[in-house]
């Protein structure tokens, strides 16, 4: 059984669209390390979750990347949402920028404790952030690094005034092809979302794993 590590049941339902009943939720509070990129954050979480569960795990990290702000808030999207709020981000973008283009990115990290064959999708083989993130009480350098397979999904759009009652997070202010993510039903959003695109890549690979 593949365990999707999240407290958000909506993410699990989205994963089920691509993985069927092979996936179930694992509510585990892994360490979210600080990094300027999504991949090492997701990779560290996958390693920690696999060591905790002893089962194949899937961890995702996602963010909103605004072109005119050099990708900010990016990996800090959840923190910015919690501290400033989504509407404050929209006001900042529309007040300060003429170019309101942005993209959602999602990185899925898979770990089952085994090695991976070479493929176009990247593999993170280094626990380089483990010791710093975990603190001095744990000697991660003595442990064998766990390889983690990474899958990325991206969807381009733009920041607009909030519309729609669905979704969560930045969905009401992110417009794709004329509709915000919050205006789409679950099936429509899953078909075009950054997470859905990453899950599609992962699902095709996982079927051969």
- Measured by DSSP, the beta-strand proportion falls in 15-25%
Which radius of gyration do the C-alpha atoms yield? 17 Å
Class from helix and strand fractions? alpha+beta
Please, how many helices? 7
- The CATH topology assignment is Maf protein
Number of separate strands: 8
Largest sheet geometry: 8 strands, mixed
Give average pLDDT, whole number. Answer: 89
For the record, the count of structural domains works out to 1
Rounded to the nearest angstrom, the distance between the terminal CA atoms is 13 Å
The percent of residues in helical segments reads 25-40%
Element pattern in H and E: EHEHEHHEEHEEEHH
User: What is the CATH C-level name?
Assistant: Alpha Beta
Q: State the CATH architecture.
A: Alpha-Beta Complex
What ranges have pLDDT less than 50 throughout 5 or more consecutive residues?
130-139
Can you put this structure into words, describing what you see?
The protein has a single domain, classed as Maf protein (Alpha-Beta Complex). Strands 1, 2, 3, 4, 5, 6, 7 and 8 form an 8-stranded mixed β-sheet that branches. The longest helix has 16 residues. The chain is globular and about 50 Å long. With 209 residues, it is α+β, with helices and mostly antiparallel strands. It has 7 helices and 8 strands.
List the helices and strands and how they pair.
Blueprint: E1 2-5, H1 9-19, E2 23-26, H2 38-53, E3 57-66, H3 77-83, H4 86-96, E4 101-111, E5 123-124, H5 130-134, E6 148-159, E7 174-176, E8 179-180, H6 186-192, H7 194-206
Parallel strand pairs: 1-2, 1-3
Antiparallel strand pairs: 3-4, 4-6, 5-6, 6-7, 7-8
Helix pairs in contact: 1-7, 6-7
